[in-house]
């Protein structure tokens, strides 16, 4: 009779793991019902454990200990702690649920599809590479020769369904595995895409913010330039107004000068006219006749001089 | 004791313990529970994909009231497919070859659909007894015929599954026996028989899956009519 502690098999298919996972989804009511049944069978179970010989008890009693999950019994009062302690030999992994350890990428390594690699490693030190094959051959021949396994029509049926299964697995195995991987990859890719889009948008936001900060730094230069512009405008305006003022003042002064000149000229003309008027009025007719006669004699003299010169 | 060909269908017992209970419940361990993980391993992904696809297939044409049956029909489908496929392995017992099991599935489920139909929409359910466009003279005859066909449904469901699987297993056994017996005498004929056996096995794999699917599909159709 296998004792409870020897139930360890290949890690990905250990029986207690599978059964406890199967029953882990039980509701509270079901687990309480199981608990009550376990409590009723407790005395019998303790008797079985104490006597250390479970052959006297039917095997179904001990199997109840194995079958009921630890999780569903923890809340069962005084019995829970006792059972948890008793089944501690079944615990092969840390009990915490989070963070979950990562699932292994691939299943356990197997040779020829069914025999775990650990068997070959186990036998290698003692029997070398051919050990497990000799064991297999020996077992098969033993079972055939002692007629523990009888060849009958079922052997042929087994051969044919075995061929069908092996053919199916070999042909469609990689395709199906790739399909499963693709589904998982798509799931991861979708989540990754969300993450990537978020990251890229945030990076973009950071860059934009940095650009804005750079722009803000340049704003002082902008203000300086603007200030310079304004100063220049003011200066220009000032100069213009200065120029205008100068022009106006010059105009005013020119006017005054022109006025003075006008005065001067007017006075001069007036004086000349007065002098001329007086002189002309002072000329008597006697003087006039004398001056005219003098002019005529002068002219005759000049004409004679010119004739003489021309003739010469 | 002399084994007849039908002894493979005897419900197995060991020391008075009916092992059919074991045969019915052990396939449970073959299905993986979705754990607390977002990303699963390949088997879990494939199983989840299959279940999603199947439920969508069956329940897309169904109105909303029938969606309550999704868990029941999905688990029935998984159960039947597993039992059928496991039964193809040598030295296994297929519970679905027992008429009692198949009728135990077919009659209550079919009756449930009929009662649901009669309770919620009795006129509509009774209206199914007369197909559209029948000539007036044929109406009484047709109603009787349709009623008979309605009551034959559970029988048909159960017997279809039983007969297909039993016939398949029986044929496998017969042809395997023939190959086994011919093998020492006429090896070439035995090889032909083995080839026939192989093809039959392929057929049986297909039949196993198809029969389970048909069972569940027909139930979903009956539900669609009545929900």
Automatic annotation (TrEMBL), chain A:
Source organism (scientific name): Oryzias latipes
Keyword Mitochondrion tagged: yes
Compartments where located: Mitochondrion; Mitochondrion inner membrane
InterPro entries found in the cross-reference section: ATP_synth_Bsub_B/MI25, ATP_synth_F0_suB
Biological role: Subunit b, of the mitochondrial membrane ATP synthase complex (F(1)F(0) ATP synthase or Complex V) that produces ATP from ADP in the presence of a proton gradient across the membrane which is generated by electron transport complexes of the respiratory chain. ATP synthase complex consist of a soluble F(1) head domain - the catalytic core - and a membrane F(1) domain - the membrane proton channel. These two domains are linked by a central stalk rotating inside the F(1) region and a stationary peripheral stalk.
GO cellular component, one term: proton-transporting ATP synthase complex
GO biological process, one term: proton motive force-driven ATP synthesis
Listed name of the protein: ATP synthase subunit b
Basic residues: bias regions: 37-48
UniProtKB/TrEMBL annotation, chain B:
Protein name in the entry: ATP synthase subunit a
Membrane topology: Multi-pass membrane protein
Keyword Transmembrane helix included in the entry's annotation: yes
InterPro entries named in the record: ATP_synth_F0_asu, ATP_synth_F0_asu_AS, ATP_synth_F0_asu_bact/mt, F0_ATP_A_sf
UniProt keyword terms in alphabetical order: ATP synthesis, CF(0), Hydrogen ion transport, Ion transport, Membrane, Mitochondrion, Mitochondrion inner membrane, Transmembrane, Transmembrane helix, Transport
Lineage per the UniProt record: Eukaryota, Metazoa, Chordata, Craniata, Vertebrata
Any one GO molecular-function label of the UniProt entry: proton transmembrane transporter activity
Similarity comment: Belongs to the ATPase A chain family.
Transmembrane segments: 12-31, 71-93, 99-117, 137-156, 162-183, 195-223
One BP annotation, GO: proton motive force-driven ATP synthesis
Catalytic activity: H(+)(in) = H(+)(out)
GO cellular component: mitochondrial inner membrane; proton-transporting ATP synthase complex
UniProt keyword Ion transport, yes or no: yes
SUPFAM superfamilies: F1F0 ATP synthase subunit A
Quaternary structure (record): Component of the ATP synthase complex composed at least of ATP5F1A/subunit alpha, ATP5F1B/subunit beta, ATP5MC1/subunit c (homooctomer), MT-ATP6/subunit a, MT-ATP8/subunit 8, ATP5ME/subunit e, ATP5MF/subunit f, ATP5MG/subunit g, ATP5MK/subunit k, ATP5MJ/subunit j, ATP5F1C/subunit gamma, ATP5F1D/subunit delta, ATP5F1E/subunit epsilon, ATP5PF/subunit F6, ATP5PB/subunit b, ATP5PD/subunit d, ATP5PO/subunit OSCP.
Organism, scientific name: Oryzias latipes
Subcellular location: Mitochondrion inner membrane
